[in-house]
Specification:
- It is found in: Membrane.
- Belongs to the ABC transporter superfamily. ABCB family. Heavy Metal importer (TC 3.A.1.210) subfamily.
- This is ABC transporter, conserved site.
- This protein is an alpha/beta fold.
- It is built from ten helices and ten strands.
- It has a six-stranded mixed β-sheet, with helices on both faces. The chain has a four-stranded antiparallel β-sheet with strand order 2-1-4-5, covered by helices on one side.
- It is globular.
- The termini are far apart.
- Bound molecules: adenosine-5'-triphosphate.
- Adenosine-5'-triphosphate (ATP) binds next to α2.
């Protein structure tokens, strides 16, 4: 038996290594599918970020087009996210919010202006070193056909380490996902993905937050799911984000304005330009402002929905 066990064990190790590599490549391509043209400059340096207290993001007059021959997507966008702060990006669909998050992750290079992280121009730093310091919580995260444990623990791969079960559980707890997992008969061994349990948008977003927590980066970028969430799930996600945001530099792309009212600063984007900026109460006080307009619209939509539910209940 021992004679058999040794080679099998050996094979197991290789299987895991190969699987790990395949998953890395798969995830990398999914993430980078967008663009494979960004290349490190020959003399590029490593981004140096020794402390979370240095994790400042600066956009200075950033101009960008996916296709330089066509229209500009961002036009002279300037803002700063101070270390430890939470800045929200809002604006109508197509305004350029997700594009900003892609540029921070250096999925594309810009045509004008500068993007700095901790004072360093990201175009002069290796992509790998930039991405190592940023946790991304996408709208719709990629799930592997594997267990919940693997899907969360995968987050730590960015650091070159494999997460332990305890670490996965702690991250899930902070991401408000542990109670969902404990309801599954197979707990963390539950298979998810296309061949397993299908997760909802809100559940996937919590997996993404747990993953990002394991990476423990100084910078977090959250792209709030557009799909409508019930009030309970929305609260859980907000609590998860608020936990994850502590002590980091945070940029939140928000679709529901109610989730970002507490931000240190809100940037309102319109057709690739920042047209308003400030705290929630300042922006609401701006008569005729875009933020106020969007806020009123969302409030009306909520009230109409509540009316419908109310009148249905009274029937
Ligand atoms: P939403 O709220 O709908 O997610 P957004 O504000 O995040 O919208 P972006 O996704 O940043 O908007 O898109 C800004 C503009 O850039 C849109 O007009 C979009 O069509 C265009 N765009 C986005 N991705 C690409 C791409 N890969 N290639 C070309 N154009 C793109």
């Amino acid at each position: 038996i021992l004679q058999l066990y040794v080679p099998l064990n050996f094979l197991g190790t290789y299987y895991r290594m190969i699987k790990q590599c395949m998953v890395d490549v798969e995830s990398m391509f999914k993430l980078l599918n967008e663009n494979k043209e960004v290349e490190d400059a020959p003399e590029s340096k490593e981004l140096v970020l020794n402390s979370k207290a240095d994790a400042r993001i600066e956009f200075e007059k950033v101009t960008f087009a996916y296709n330089p021959a066509e229209r500009l997507i961002l036009n002279h966008v300037s803002f700063t996210v101070e270390p430890g702060a939470k800045v929200a990006l809002v604006g109508r669909s197509g305004a350029g919010k997700s594009t900003i998050s892609k540029l921070i992750y250096r999925l594309y290079d810009i045509q004008g202006g500068v993007i700095r992280i901790a004072g360093q121009d990201v175009t002069k730093c290796t992509q790998r070193s930039v991405r190592l310091h940023i946790g991304i919580v996408p709208q719709d995260c990629v799930l592997f056909n594997d267990t919940i444990e693997y899907n969360i623990g995968f987050g730590k791969l960015g650091t070159g380490e494999v997460a332990t079960r305890d670490e996965v559980m702690a991250a899930a707890e902070h991401a408000q996902f542990n109670s969902f997992v404990s309801k599954q008969p197979q707990g963390y061994e539950t298979l998810v993905g296309e061949r397993g349990l299908r997760l909802s948008g809100g559940e996937k977003q919590r997996v993404a937050i747990a993953r990002a927590l394991l990476k423990n980066p100084p910078i977090m970028v959250y792209d709030e799911a557009t799909s409508s969430l019930d009030t309970h799930t929305e609260k859980q996600i907000m609590a998860a984000i608020n936990f994850a945001a502590q002590g980091r530099t945070n940029l939140v792309i928000a679709h529901r304005l109610s989730t970002i009212m507490d931000s240190d600063q809100i940037l309102v984007l319109k057709e690739g330009e920042v047209v308003e900026r400030g705290e929630h109460t300042d922006l609401l006080a701006k008569p005729g402002g875009l933020y106020k307009d969007m806020w009123d619209q969302q409030l009306n939509a909520r009230n109409t929905k509540a009316d419908r539910i109310g009148s249905a209940a009274s029937l």
